[in-house]
Amino acid sequence: MNILEEFDTIAAPATPMGAGGVGIIRISGEKAFEIIGKIFTNPDFQPRKFNHGWIIDGDTRIDDVIVLPFFAPNSYTGEDVVEIQCHGGVQVVKNILNLVLKNGARLAEKGEFTKRAFLNKRMDLSQAESVADIIHSKTGEFAKVSMKNLSGVLKEKINDIRNDIFEVLSKITAGIDFPEDVREPEYSYLTERFENIITQIDSVLAGANTSNIFRQGASVAIVGKPNVGKSSLFNALLNLERAIVTDIAGTTRDVLRETLDLGIPVTLVDTAGIREDEEVSKVEKIGIEYSKQSLDEADLVLFIYDASKGLDSDDKEVLELLKDKNHIVISNKSDLVTERNPEALCVSALSGEGVSELKELLKKKVCDIEPENLEFVTNTRQQECLKKARASMEQAFLAASLHELQDLISIDVKSAILALDELTGELVTDNILENIFEHFCIGK
């Protein structure tokens, strides 16, 4: 995008294209009211009031609509914004959008409305990124925690940390620049403040793994030898008959994947039974290789054995493959036995016994903390900024502990501030902005 396009009036559908009750076309920019005035029969706009009328193309009526005016700076983008609410339908929305474009707007790029909101200081970069998280959230829980960032929780915490760092930097700078009037702060004061700042950064990073799981999902593979009930458990967890279940060993030849919503998105993987047998067919061998590959790629593995037969040498061979993996040992067909293995989770895929407990354990195993206790949601870019800030503060702490020159210590303190400014967008490059907003949909 060239610099002139930054100030264009833009337009795009704000609702998905398709049949529906309502379609919305959003216009933003200095020509928004000029454009709507040319194509709307009732353009006498007042703040906080909607207008009802017709969208027209010359003498031709296009649709009966409601128009919502938002006057700058009190709008989503901080510019003059007009939203046209028309009847939902692909052709209706297209006709109105084309009319808007013909009268002076251009089609918005991906995420351009939110990008303008950021550039016009309506939100910081962490809030802008939370908009994308809300749109693309795969679970209801992630949508809720992403809303925290949109409300400014992360922004406020980062600003608090930055203010603490800036306060220390100001005292160091004053002592360096005005040695006759201001004493340099005591090194004990510096180490105490730096340690406190590091602790604050750690509190934000504490939920990093859970944030990533929320955003990307977790892969959970069900493995074991043939005929121990892997596909039955797969169906029980999903509460649907997705995988074929028979008494014949080797029924599952391919890898099946389905998404399970546990508050976090979990990709459940049903695999072929792992066994080393000369009688195994060529097709089943391929399925076994897929199983081993799924095992390696999984964030968590559910190892299943048949409780009615106990752990035999074949089970132990499979279990040996998991010694370095995060895994849960599951004793299936527990309804057929009276004695339970205390070191395994006892489950009956047939009766449903233990399935709810398994779902809770799954959530705990893949998350560092419970979703409802997740105070801050961060993405990879934000985590890298926080890690850079933390590394700089650690270096400053070490230097202060060794009583090094405070003008040298101030270099690391400044680096920490710059890292936090990159997180919030106070210091940001065009490449970073393009990378963030290209993942948005058009119209947001």
Describe this structure in words.
By secondary structure, the chain is of the alpha/beta class. Helices cover 45% and strands 16% of the residues. The chain contains 15 helices and 12 strands. The strands form 2 sheets. The chain has a 6-stranded mixed beta sheet, with helices on one face. Strands 8-9-7-10-11-12 form a 6-stranded mixed beta sheet, sandwiched between helices. Helix 13 runs antiparallel to helix 14. The protein is flat. The two termini are 17 Å apart. About 3% of the residues have low confidence.
Poorly predicted ranges = 242-253
Distinct helical segment count = 15
Mean pLDDT equals 85
Shape: flat
Strand order of the largest sheet: 3-4-5-2-1-6
What's the short version?
With 444 residues, this protein is of the alpha/beta class. The chain has helices at residues 32-39, 90-102, 112-119, 125-136, 140-150, 153-177, 187-205, 208-216, 230-238, 282-297, 313-320, 355-366, 380-401, 406-424, 430-437; strands at residues 10-13, 22-28, 51-57, 60-70, 81-87, 106-107, 218-223, 256-261, 265-270, 300-306, 327-332, 345-346.
